[in-house]
Amino acid sequence: MDLQRLVFVDESGAKTNMTRLYGRAKAGDRATDDTPCGHWCTTTMISSVRLDGSTACMVVDGATNKEVFQAYLSNILLPTLRSGDMIGYRGQPLKYK
User: Fold this and answer.
1) Smallest Cα–Cα separation from 10: which of 71, 72, 67?
2) Lower CB count within 10 Å: N or C terminus of the chain?
3) What pLDDT, in 10s, does the model give residues 64-91?
């Protein structure tokens, strides 16, 4: 197997409501921090990486659905693929409706 032909695809997300509920402070001090007030957002990044480090990334506001993933595949990932490339996907099973 030619390792240069492996392309791994993964997705990751961040939500602004993922704030810490607990923190540490010096003895006698109170741990405080700022959080967004009622403005919850989700950002998702879908990316691929090869052994040489090259990537094909896409960032979307919101969660990934069937249309978003298909757009990533056809517009971002497929133009970077070469004949004989093997794709590995680590993520949730593709159950998009």
Assistant:
1) 72
2) C
3) 888 999 999 999 999 999 899 999 887 6
